[in-house]
Amino acid sequence: MTCQALIAYSVGLLGLILVKVLAPGFYARQNIRTPVRIAIVTLIATQLMNAALIVPLRHAGLALSIGLGACLNAGLLYRQLRRHGIYQPQPGWGMFALKVAAALAAMALALWLAMGPATWWLVASGTTRAAAVTGLVLLGGAAYFASLWLLGFRVADFSRRAA
Q: For 108-138, what is each residue's pLDDT tens digit?
């Protein structure tokens, strides 16, 4: 059951992170009203999703609605930042995001294939599980960075350039 809830929460992880990145764009301009209005809309939408998803998905439906609400919140914040001309993405961000998404997908696939059945994790000793988790973390990092390298990213691409 915990696995189902974590998978449902993971849907909104990017949304939660983006809210923390996008909201300060309003606060820096002394505009607290817009993020609060968006948060109220998000709260209402989340409660409606709770009502719709609790019956078919039980506890995972609640987690999923929170994740989807976070994505809605981030999307609305982004839209308002663009609409008011506060944020204008640089050329190339779409391709950058696509490449990072592909590397994340490669990492997720590698981890999913290497993870093994859930029953193994339940019967393995603590030391064995710790070693397996360490191996999975290393494998995930290797798959992610190797994918980025294959997609053309180099370490120099992440250095700050003088304006």
A: 999 999 998 888 988 999 999 999 999 999 9
CA 78 to chain CA centroid, nearest Å: 15
Tens-digit pLDDT profile for residues 6-34: 989 999 999 999 999 999 999 999 999 99
Q: What is the dihedral of CA 43, 46, 52, 56, to 10 degrees?
A: -150
CA atoms within a 13 Å half-sphere pointing along the CA-CB vector of 144: 11
Look up residue 64 and give its two tokens.
């999923």
| DSSP calls for 49-115 | HHHHHHHHHTHHHHHHHHHHHHHHHHHHHHHHHHHTTS--PPTTHHHHHHHHHHHHHHHHHHHHHHH
Q: What is the pLDDT of residue 157?
A: 75
Domain boundaries, the chain: 2-83, 93-158
Cα–Cα separations (whole angstroms), residue 115 to 109, 131, 137, 146, 147: 10, 12, 11, 19, 19
